[in-house]
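FYI - complex with iron/sulfur cluster, inputs then prediction.
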Amino acid sequence: MPHAAPRSLLDKLWERHIVAPETPEAPALLYIDLHLIHEVTSPQAFAALAERGLKVRRPELTLGTLDHSTPTLPPDANGRLLYASREAEQQVETLIRNCAEHGVRLLGLRDPQRGIVHVIGPELGLTQPGKTIVCGDSHTSTHGAFGALAFGIGTTEVGHVLATQCLLQRKPKSMRVVIDGAAPHGVGAKDMALAMIATIGADGGQGYAIEFAGEAVRALSMEGRMTLCNMSIEAGARSGLVAPDETTFAYLEGRPYAPSSAEFERAVSRWRNLASDAGARFDREVRIDASSLRPMITYGVSPAAAAPVDSRMPAPESASERAAAAYMRFESGDAFVTAAVNRVFIGSCTNSRLSDLREAAEVMRGRKVRSGVVALIVPGSETVKRAAEAENLHRVFIDAGAEWREPGCSMCIGMNGDIGAPGELVVSTSNRNFIGRQGKEVRTVLASPATAAASAIEGRIADPRKYLREKSEAA
Amino acid sequence: MTSFQPLRSVASRAFVLDRNDVDTDQIIPARFLTTTSRAGLGRFAFYDWRFDEHGRQKNDSPFAGVEPGDFAILVAGSNFGCGSSREHAPWALLDFGFRAVVSSDIADIFKSNALKNGLLPVTVDVRTHQRLLSSPGAAISIDLDAETLRLPDGETVSFKVEPFARRCLLDGVDPLGFLLDRIPLIEAYERESAKERMS
Ligand code: SF4
């Protein structure tokens, strides 16, 4: 047999979904296996379908959830949900109506499986190796942790997928980020992600799909790999990828929508072949030494402005950096750990899974949130919430003086009214420190769950390492 | 059918926003995304740059005195449009009067969304970018057919737009019709891959 050219994971995923290949005149027609929708980016897409009298072509490949605009406080005494605005409520009602009309399954407000769109896909076993997955949401890159080609799309494209189950796409370039070595004590996936973005820049991944490889990535749990792929978009890459392996298969086995028994074995043998072949070519390669990393925080208004938590504010070098430093009110030379914290948010599709909550609880157990600091713990889904409560993690948080909320995006985007006050400093486990993202003039510092929890305890940006047991691999 | 004003060329004074990484939360803050329509979002464009917490126009903002429709060309720092996939960003910019955005580097999803709505993303080399950033208000013209941008001194630089998206922009159509014409191909693909899964 002649030897075919070695192919990368991206090549393999791409080739098996081509309905019509790309030409100089037109992009490829790419088949989409799973389409996730939520209330914010779908209404205008359904409206576009209605304008043309079209129906959702493959409703069974589409799943809806409610996450962005939903309240995280329980219903009031009359059972009413406390929406941030009438518009927010209307948006939720619109998705409920659209899904009912088109026969699309929706994880509605009282569904025990509802949650943040990028938490529920994997959790339900719908996210699987070898699939193409899209959502009108840039953090769709999260699902790439399973060896799926997953990327965020705009609302017009949501309409295209609803109507045809296909998208017009040009193949991205490929980048491999190899994270070698073993991550030291207190350094997790979020720290690796921030270090990666600081290394390649907020636009360094533009036009690429990033495959993460190397010893430190292999050692990560699925939750950790999801955190890493989730943050790919913050480096400008629409997709992150990790080749599926035993960790992936073990995670998926027994999940509600994963293939069952004999079929599962067959699927696993297919999935094994997805890994990049030895000698596969990448358009760009980057190496990061995990053993040199420390817990990371951000100090600016772009996730690329990241530095070790135990370092000092660097001197700004451009007009943009000066504006960012002024917004953050950090003086060059100041140690980050001296900055007073007003609020802490532990949640979002980056860090709201059970392992993230365990990590935060490890730091908070038996301690108190500094008085004057508001700490919000928001599980990523109803499933995560139940699992955390079964382990009594909620008691740890409540006893520490933190608030244990209902699942949703919450302060990651603040659309449901969970926001900080102007000028406040928020240490947040979410993915974006953009100006105003967590409320007008709110200063966001991105960090891992452990760093966020430690900062809640100290009331200042804090190094989590002293609170964590040695060998702290979150399960 | 979703369609928009075809775009062949734009000529306007340039509005310069000399900041890198202008993200979609700055273009339109998330609290304005609760709409279920795409109309009228211009009033929220760059809202927190333009207005203070009492809703009064800021005097110390680059947008001070700027009204919707004053400029059709936006020149911004690198990595423009990074962040979320919200198509509300190009909707808001269009409704504010912009038809083209020029930068050294424009984020992927934003670019893709812009092209589908009649907002032209133009990526230029770093030297041209620097020149544009340092000449606010300069008269610029952009010709999409020829893929050229003309600077005030008459110098012309070329740029590239993905050919299919360019065609859609020139004709003012969303590619949905193109996709719908290919349903038989899609059905054939579905039959093939179902067989593969069974084997
Ligand atoms: S948690 Fe944040 S980033 Fe994730 S889907 Fe929700 S709003 Fe988007």
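Chain B is about 30% helix and 15% strand. The domain at 9-198 of chain B is CATH 3.20.19.10 (Aconitase; domain 4).
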